[in-house]
Write a structure and sequence with these properties.
It is a single chain. This protein is of the alpha/beta class and 459 residues long. The chain has three domains: 158 residues, P-loop containing nucleotide triphosphate hydrolases (Rossmann fold, 3-Layer(aba) Sandwich); 173 residues, Rossmann fold (3-Layer(aba) Sandwich); 79 residues, K homology (KH) domain (GMP Synthetase, Chain A, domain 3), CATH 3.30.300. It is 37% helix and 21% strand. The longest helix is centred in the first third of the chain and has 16 residues. The protein starts with a strand and ends with a helix.
């Protein structure tokens, strides 16, 4: 089951601070200035292998201005769509009319919510606990988000309240199909599996949820995940559109590879690059499919590949396959490359094979000096997949020149055939085994040393 948690409350009660602490990030801007968060902000809260979406919302305030009304509406959209709600209050102040109005509307939603008192580190004579008891709320958490007080207890309680039943996804290699609206994602899947499983329309945005479609090729099981098209300005959009985007990103989180569908007649646009960048940051492999190539002339095809976006270093790493979803062209090549990318992305490498490659790269281009010290790359080992991670141990870890990091990244990518696969290099400073060892001299050695020093001085 797709689970999401919304944090709501009036302005300046610490929602963004709590969001940053629970997601272990700095995605939300934190300030003493009231009403800084205006749009919904999202991140993941992890409980071991289980992940849930956490949504930071703008403060719900009683104000007649259009902006404040929009902010409040965004917050309530997040609350309505979430599995669990955190109702955050300022524990150093008494309950006010805004708090009571939020509480009243929360109860009407008939959703599970946790009442949390923040800022308990502040000295105050507020009677908020008594006020809550009068309103029938006897159980609440007292925390200090800024100082991480009682956050572990809150996390444990959140984990208990989340639904355990997960939606069953068919077994097989999972391929998420991503792209802007009307890029031809559903048409491609229908044509590929030779079934009319998905609604196809010229109206952009027909698909509004992530849909799993199992199929088999050469006795191998696969699952296509058709996702909703991600529009520009999705964060401020209607709740259906916004959560369609969220579900699309959740599908990326669970898939083995992403096929990004681009409308070749429009070319790569900024929104395409933003989506590709999001997938890259999540560490997932990606294959770029230029759809509707049958609509382009030879001159238009040449112009497509000559654009700055397609020729950029960022896009150059990905496989680019030309297809026509409506005519069924290019499917074999696309599927072959996608399957190869899945296998290479899940491959694990031995330490000996990686160290042989590292020695080869060092011999071809010696490491530079850093602050007068020769950079020494000692050994490398495999660190994990999605992204493929290599850990390099050296005598430096922070001052390694960016151009040499890029050289190593390109060399490993080329040798390990990691096209369309995210590669992450982690540099760690090796410990000196003799750093804390004290070599004590004997009395005889001390006297000998003194004689030697005297001899040197006299000379």
């Amino acid at each position: 089951m797709f689970t999401s948690i919304a944090i709501i409350g009036r302005p300046n009660v610490g929602k963004s601070t709590l969001f940053n602490k629970l997601t272990k990030s700095r995605q939300a801007i934190v300030s003493d200035f009231s009403g800084l968060t205006k749009d919904r902000n999202y991140g993941y809260i992890s409980f071991g292998e289980q992940k849930s979406l956490l949504i930071d919302t703008g403060g719900i305030a009683q104000d007649d201005t259009i902006l404040k009304e929009d902010i409040a509406e965004q917050a309530w959209i997040a609350a309505e769509e979430s599995s669990l709600i955190i109702f955050l209050l300022d524990g150093s102040q008494n309950l006010n009319k805004e708090d009571l109005d939020i509480l009243s509307r929360l109860r009407k939603l008939n959703k599970t919510f946790i009442t949390v008192l923040n800022k308990i580190d502040k000295k105050s004579d507020a009677l908020i606990k008594e006020d809550l008891n009068k309103k029938g709320i006897n159980n609440f958490f007292e925390i200090s988000a800024e100082h991480s007080k009682n956050l572990l207890d809150l996390r444990s309680f959140i984990k208990k309240l989340l639904p355990n039943n997960q939606t069953k996804v068919p077994e097989g290699k999972k391929i998420a199909i991503l792209g802007r609206p009307n890029a031809g994602k559903s048409t491609f899947i229908n044509k590929f599996i030779k079934e009319d499983r998905l609604i196809v329309s010229e109206i952009a945005g027909t698909t509004i949820d992530a849909i799993s479609i199992p199929f088999s090729v050469n006795d191998d099981d696969f699952v296509f995940i058709d996702t909703a098209g991600i529009r520009k300005g999705y964060r401020n959009a209607h709740k259906i559109e916004y959560f369609s985007y969220v579900r699309a990103m959740h599908s990326v989180e669970t898939c083995d590879v992403v096929i990004f569908m681009c409308d070749a007649s429009e070319g790569l646009v900024d929104q395409d690059l933003k989506i590709i960048n999001m997938v890259s940051e999540m560490g997932k492999p990606l294959v770029l499919a230029f759809n509707k190539m049958d609509l382009l002339t030879k001159r238009q095809k040449d112009d497509l590949y000559e654009t700055k976006r397609v020729q950029s270093n960022f896009v150059d790493n990905f496989f680019k396959i030309e297809i026509s979803g409506i005519k069924g062209r290019g499917f074999k090549k696309l599927f072959k490359e996608t399957n190869n990318v899945i296998e290479n992305a899940q491959k694990k490498y031995t330490t000996s094979s990686l160290n042989k490659l590292l020695e080869k790269f060092i011999s071809q281009s010696a490491p530079p000096s850093v602050n007068g010290r020769q950079l020494k790359l000692k050994h490398v080992h495999f660190g994990g997949i999605n992204p493929t991670t290599l850990v390099i141990h050296s005598n430096q870890d922070k001052k390694i020149p960016q151009n040499y990091k890029k050289y190593l990244e390109n060399s490993f990518r080329s040798s390990l055939k990691l096209q369309s696969i995210q590669l992450k290099l982690i540099f760690r400073k090796s410990d000196n085994p003799f750093e804390n060892k004290v070599n004590k001299l004997t009395d005889r050695q001390i006297k000998k040393r003194q004689r030697m020093m005297k001899h040197v001085k006299n000379k």
